[in-house]
Amino acid sequence: MGTVDLPFLPYTSGLEVALQAMRKYQRSAVVTDAKEGLWLFRAGPVVQGLARNLKYLADLETRKRVYTASHEELLPLGIPLVETYPAWDRMREFMDEKARAYIVIIPSKSFLSLAPEPKGLIQLVSRHEELANLLRSGPTDCYCTDASRGSSPHEFSQPLPKDGLCPFDQSKIVCS
Ligand SMILES: [Zn+2]
Question: Distance, CA 140 to ligand 1 centroid (Å)?
Answer without folding.
Answer: 14
